[in-house]
Design a protein that fits this description.
By secondary structure, this protein is of the alpha/beta class. The protein contains 13 helices and 20 strands.
Length: 483
C-alpha cells in the first residue's frame, strides 16, 4: 500500500475522552479509493479496552453535561457550525476520496451539516416542560424533560458527515453524551467532525469515536449497561438485529433504515420538469441514497414523453472521478456493489424488461457502473421489490389512481416518496394514501434541519431533525408535590 496520504486528508484515529489515539499495536484496516481501487490510508480499530474507556468517558462526562445550561450547549454547537463551514472544502475532498461522490455533492453535504448544528443550537434552548393544574389545593404538578443518558450511535458511509452530525447535535443538544461508530470504509469526515467539536470547546468525553468490526462493536456497545439510547442509520436487516438486541434490554432506539421510494408521475404533471428532476435525484451519489426515487410509476398518457426526457437527461451525465470538476456521477463506494448492479439488470432482462441506457460497468479501474434506465419491468422483478441502492432507474406504466397506490404501497418499505401533479386534488389524495414517512410533491423538500426525517414500516421509527429531533434523547419525568 502507498503509505502517503493525499494532501489535506486527515490523520485517522479514535477519539476517547478528548484524546485522539492511533496505532499502538491495535488492529488496522485499509481505506480504499473507489475511483481507483487503491488503498491510501490506514484506520485504527478500537480494542475492547478502548470501548470500555470510551463508555466510561461518556458516562463520566454525562454527569456534568446533563446539568449544563442550554445556552452553553448552544454556544458549542454554533462554534462547531462555524468550524464546519471553514473546513468544508478539505472535509469534502476527504469524502470524495473515501466513497467517490462528486466534490460538489460532498461540499453540499458538509455545508448542510453546518445548518444542522446551527438549528440544533437554537432548538436546544427550547426544550420545555410544563405545569399541570392540580385537582387538589396545595399540590404542584410538573412535567420535566431530561436527557436520557449515554447514547451509542452508528452511521453509514453514503453520507458520512451528514448522518453523523445529525446524531451528534441531537444528542449533545439534549444534554446527552455519546459513543459514535462511523463507517470504517469512509472515516475521514467523522474524524474531522470529532476534531471540530474538540476545537469548539466540547468537554472531554461528551463525544467519543470508535472504529472496528461493525457487528462486534455494535453488540458490545448496545449490551453495555452504560448505554441508554441507540441510534442507527443503515440497512433494514442490520437495523432489525440491533433493534431486537436493544429491545431485549429495554433501550430506546431511533432507526433510520432503507427504503425503495416510489415516484409517481400523473398525466397532468409537468412531465419534462418531473423527468429532469427525478433523473437528477436518482443518480445523485450514484443512486446510493436511502431516499432516492427508485421506482418510477408514470401514467400511460405521460409515459413516452417522460421516458424520452429522462433518458436524455441521463445521457448528459458525465461519469468519472469525483475530484474532476466535470463529473456528475462518481463510482460506487464498494467493489462488491458492482456485480450486485449487474445482477439487478440481468434479473430484469430475464423477466422481459428493456435496458434503454447503460446496464454495464465502465472502464478498467474503480467501481464504475453506467447510469442505467430499464423499462417494462414486471412488479416481481428484483428492481421493483429490493432497494437497488445504485444507479439503476426502473420506469413502468400505470393507468389508475387506486392501482398505482396499491403498487407503491405493496412493499414493506416506507421511507420517502414522490409525486408530480398539477392537481391539488391529486396532490392531497396521494399524500394521504401513500405509506411513507416523507412525501415530496412536485419537488425535493426533505432532509432539512428544521424538518423531521424518518420512515415507517420496515424503514424504521423515530425522527431526526425538526421539532421531533430531541424526542428520542429525552425522558419525561412527572413530579407531584403537596406543599
Amino acid at each position: 500500500m502507498d503509505q502517503t496520504m493525499p494532501p489535506g486528508y486527515p490523520e485517522l484515529s479514535l477519539l476517547i475522552d478528548g484524546r485522539f489515539i492511533a496505532g499502538g499495536g491495535r488492529p488496522e484496516q485499509d481505506v480504499l479509493d473507489p475511483a481507483t481501487g487503491k488503498a491510501f490510508a490506514r484506520l485504527t480499530h478500537a480494542t475492547r479496552e478502548d470501548l470500555d474507556a470510551a463508555l466510561a468517558a461518556a458516562d463520566r462526562a454525562f454527569q456534568e453535561w446533563r446539568r449544563s445550561s442550554p445556552v452553553e450547549r448552544a454556544r458549542v454547537l454554533r462554534k462547531a457550525a462555524d468550524l464546519i463551514r471553514e473546513r468544508a472544502p478539505e472535509i469534502a475532498r476527504g469524502i470524495v476520496l473515501d466513497m467517490g461522490k462528486p466534490y460538489a455533492e460532498a461540499l453540499a453535504e458538509v455545508n448542510g451539516g453546518a445548518e444542522h448544528a446551527d438549528w440544533h443550537a437554537e432548538e436546544c434552548r427550547r426544550i420545555y416542560g410544563r405545569v399541570i393544574p392540580p385537582r387538589v389545593d396545595g399540590v404542584r404538578q410538573l412535567v420535566m424533560r431530561e436527557p436520557i443518558g449515554v447514547c451509542a450511535a452508528f452511521t453509514p458511509w453514503n453520507f458520512p458527515f451528514n448522518q453523523a452530525i445529525r446524531k451528534v447535535v441531537a444528542a449533545l443538544g439534549a444534554g446527552c453524551t455519546l459513543v459514535l461508530k462511523g463507517p470504517e470504509d469512509a472515516p475521514s469526515a467523522v474524524v474531522a467532525l470529532g476534531r471540530i467539536f474538540v476545537d469548539a470547546g466540547l468537554p472531554a468525553g461528551c463525544l467519543n469515536l470508535v472504529w472496528g468490526v461493525p457487528a462486534e462493536v455494535s453488540d458490545y456497545l448496545i449490551r453495555s449497561p452504560i448505554v441508554r439510547k441507540v441510534s442507527f442509520t443503515g440497512s433494514v436487516p442490520v437495523g432489525k438485529q440491533l433493534a431486537a438486541l436493544a429491545g431485549s434490554l429495554m433501550k430506546r432506539c431511533t432507526m433510520e433504515l432503507g427504503g425503495h421510494s416510489p415516484a409517481i408521475v400523473f398525466d397532468d404533471a409537468d412531465v419534462d420538469r418531473a423527468a429532469e428532476m427525478l433523473a437528477g435525484l436518482k443518480y445523485r451519489n450514484a443512486g446510493q441514497v436511502c431516499v432516492s426515487p427508485s421506482r418510477m410509476y408514470v401514467h400511460e398518457k405521460a409515459y413516452d414523453r417522460f421516458v424520452s426526457t429522462f433518458t436524455e437527461a441521463v445521457g448528459r451525465l458525465k461519469v468519472g472521478n469525483g475530484l474532476d470538476k466535470e463529473t456528475r456521477m462518481g463510482p460506487l463506494a464498494h467493489e462488491r456493489r458492482v456485480p450486485t448492479m449487474q445482477a439487478f439488470v440481468e434479473d430484469a432482462d430475464r423477466r422481459g424488461a428493456k435496458v434503454l441506457v447503460g446496464g454495464s460497468t465502465l472502464g478498467d479501474a474503480g467501481n464504475f457502473f453506467a447510469p442505467t434506465v430499464v423499462t417494462d419491468v414486471p412488479d416481481d422483478a428484483r428492481l421493483m421489490t429490493q432497494e437497488p441502492f445504485g444507479p439503476i432507474a426502473p420506469i413502468v406504466r400505470f393507468s389508475e389512481f387506486d392501482e398505482v397506490v396499491r403498487r407503491a404501497n405493496s412493499l414493506p418499505y416506507g421511507l420517502a416518496s414522490y409525486a408530480f401533479t398539477r392537481s391539488t386534488r391529486n396532490a392531497t389524495a396521494i399524500s394521504n394514501a401513500i405509506e411513507a414517512g416523507m412525501v415530496n410533491i412536485n419537488h425535493f423538500g426533505i432532509a432539512l434541519a428544521e424538518t423531521p426525517f424518518g420512515g415507517i414500516k420496515d424503514s424504521g421509527y423515530g425522527s431526526e431533525g425538526g421539532a421531533e429531533t430531541f424526542d428520542g434523547y429525552l425522558v419525561t419525568k412527572f413530579v407531584t408535590q403537596l406543599n
